[in-house]
Design brief:
heterodimer, A: about 110 residues, mainly beta, seven-stranded mixed sheet, four-stranded antiparallel sheet, 11 strands, about 0% helix, B: about 120 residues, six-stranded mixed sheet, 12 strands, globular
Chain lengths: ~110, ~120
């Protein structure tokens, strides 16, 4: 069966520090991968998605970047965090092809920028 | 562009009450529609989905019917339990083009069920 893991689960970072959130998917190959953010009191916003190694699409301009160094690995990064980067970050995957394919989410990472 | 509008919460019900959470959407083409649930402190789990008009998704006593004529996908449950307390998100997946397969979410509706 397929599983998705992301880490760390919780982190508190000072303003201006770097960020690295990692996500891996097991049990499938060539998935679509996604990073979503859920800010306090708001819905989910798609940040990045990837359809293959090295292929990253950004949905909104921001202080973050994403990379996909391997087929089932997706990394969210920042060189210098802002207070507004605080939120709940969710990695997700889906099978490529059909828009009705379910998107499966990881456990999430709580980021607090202080 | 695509958008999803959910009824604003929070919604507070007594156990065994009937639940309806309204969801309407705006989209081009023929999107797939989803309901996700987020329990406290956890990620999102798929609750149910429908991929074409008039389809009914169902799971754990929850149901939603894809109504293209009213662009709606309302979530219903006949008798809620305390364990149903969570945040519920309506979402659509775009079909075709560069936005293929990505989810657009509603704002979420907080449901609290009291014993």
């Amino acid at each position: 069966s397929q599983t998705i893991h992301q880490w760390p689960a919780t982190l508190v970072q000072p303003v201006g520090s770097p960020l690295s959130l990692e996500c891996t998917v097991e049990g499938t190959s060539n998935p679509n991968l996604y990073w979503y953010r859920q800010a306090a009191g708001r819905g989910l916003q798609l940040l990045f998605y990837s359809v293959g190694i090295g292929q990253i699409s950004s949905e909104v301009p921001q202080n973050l970047s994403a990379s996909r160094p391997q087929d089932r690995q997706f990394i969210l990064s920042s060189k210098k965090l802002l207070l507004s980067d605080s939120g709940f970050y969710l990695c997700a995957w889906s099978v490529q092809g059909f828009s009705g394919n379910t998107i499966y989410f990881g456990e999430g990472s709580w980021l607090t920028v202080v | 562009g695509n958008s999803v509008t959910q009824m604003e919460g929070p919604v507070t019900l007594s156990e065994e009450a009937f639940l309806t959470i309204n969801c309407t959407y705006t989209a081009t083409g023929y999107p797939s529609l989803f309901w996700y649930v987020q329990y406290p402190g956890e990620g999102l789990q798929l609750l149910l989905k429908a991929t074409k008009a008039d389809d009914k998704g169902s799971n754990k006593g929850f149901e939603a019917t894809y109504r293209k004529e009213t662009t709606s996908f309302h979530l219903e449950k006949g008798s809620v339990q305390v364990s149903d307390s969570a945040v519920y998100f309506c979402a659509l997946a775009n079909a075709g083009g560069t936005s293929y397969g990505k989810l657009t979410f509603g704002q979420g509706t907080i449901l609290t069920v009291h014993p």
